Amino acid sequence: MKEFTYKARNKDGTATQGIVEAETEVAASNLLISKNIFPVDIKEGTKTSFEIPFLKKVSRKDKVFFLRQLATMTGAGLPIAQALSTLLAQTSKKNVKKMIEQMSRDIEAGGTLSAAFAAFPDVFNKTDTNMIASGEASGKVDEVLLHMANQTEKSYQTLKKIRTVFIYPAFLAVVVSGVVGILITFVLPQMKNLYSGFGANLPLPTRILIGTSDFLAKYFILVVILVIAIYISLRIYIKTNETGKYFWHRLKTSIPIISSFIRLSYLSIITRTLASLVASGVPILDSLDIVSEAMQNVIYRDSLKTVRDKVKQGKSLSAAFKEDEVFPILVSQMMGVGEQTGELDNMLSNMAEYYDNELDSMTKNLQSLLEPVMIVIMGGIVGTIIICILLPVYSLQNFVVH
Q: Can you tell me whether residue 5 is helix, strand or coil?
């Protein structure tokens, strides 16, 4: 018996893959069909090659380019299968090429574009697949694809803003940590040998610093292992324990200054995603479900689920958001206007733009604030260490007298 790797579709069109044993490729195909699994691709053997996950990942930039090109081609009247074939011929990146090849096979086998998207959850999330499904139902796939490209690009810009704020402080922290390490590892031991010849008591700050240096020199590996163990334990606790998640996510939205930045980023993501789903024709209850599931912060996730339950009970969207203290009053007011005018998607888009602008302004303010603060803090740490090292030198006269 031989092993065959297959990619197939179930009766409901869901993508699946696996390994089957059979004498021949035809026998493997017949075996799958007998189980109501309809093969799209069958190859002899199993994958044994080593692949590094981040090297086979499709980037956000690649995703935006793919969506824009596909939207342009379908908008020009090309069938999905032909548009994918054209994109395949134009693509040089291996990871994107593999994705398009699989999608092409799925479409040619009779699958839908939304099902083809769903086969790549690392690239297209539930929001994307639901939007495409709505576009297929309404016959506006090209418009939905273009809308998705715009929203993905804006989300990417938001993520870049968040990262930009913390890049400089992180870089400065690494540099200062290196400087402190050099001072404690190389400079302090030499000064310690010098001080030992004085035969006098060293100042308390210097003794504390020397004691710390000796401890780290003796138990450095143990300290590193302990720090890593604590970090991993906290990560696991936060990821697997609901109490841990609530504590960490509540803490992130409570830290002065930074909490405002984080709240704005969440509000931007929520309003933009809701706008995309509503504009694509996804029912409001389903949209709230999708947005809540997409939220990584459990505080906002639970609030969105509460809003969804209230809307299901008959309340308006604006009234449900107004009753939840997590969301500012502006959200419910703008939603109320959108419901009255019948332009809820436009109002949500306007809110997303507003929060993006606020986020951009806060990013610049935070950067200008964090840079001097970090310089003062890190400079204070290095300065304190240097003072502790040099403090006995200023007391040299006392050492000599004794």
A: strand
Using CA atoms, how far apart are residues 328 and 308, in angstroms rounded to an integer? 17
pLDDT of 378 reads: 83
Question: Rounded CA gap, 36 and 42, in Å?
Answer: 16
Cα distance between residue 106 and residue 108, in whole Å = 6
Instruction: Give one DSSP letter per residue of 311-377, joined into a string.
Output: HHTT--HHHHHHT-TTS-HHHHHHHHHHHHHT-HHHHHHHHHHHHHHHHHHHHHHHHHHHHHHHHHH
pLDDT at 13: 62
The CATH number of 54-154, from 1.20.81.30, 3.40.50.720, 3.40.50.300, 3.50.70.10, is: 1.20.81.30
Identify the pLDDT of residue 392.
Answer: 75
Euclidean distance between the first and the last CA atom of the chain, given in angstroms as a whole number: 90
Report pLDDT for 173.
Answer: 82
- Residues in the chain predicted with pLDDT less than 50, given as ranges, are 48-55, 399, 401-402
63-68: Cβ within 8 A, 24+ apart: 63/123, 63/124, 63/152, 64/149, 64/152, 64/153, 64/156, 66/96, 66/100, 67/145, 67/146, 67/148, 67/149, 67/152, 68/145, 68/146, 68/149
Asked if 253 and 297 count as a contact pair (C-beta separation under 8 A), the reply is: yes
Measuring CA to CA, which residue among 158, 127, 142 is closest to residue 273?
127
Position 50 scores a pLDDT of: 43
Tokens for 332, please give them: 């419910």
CATH number of 155-402: 1.10.150.120, 3.20.20.70, 1.20.81.30, 1.10.10.10?
1.20.81.30
Helical (H) or strand (E) element with 17: strand 15-22
Tokens 């803490």 -> residue:
251
Give the pLDDT score at 57.
Answer: 74
The predicted model scores a pTM of: 0.65
Residue with tokens 């006392």: 398
Q: What is the pLDDT of residue 383?
A: 86
Task: Give the integer Cα–Cα distance in Å for 103 and 6.
Answer: 15
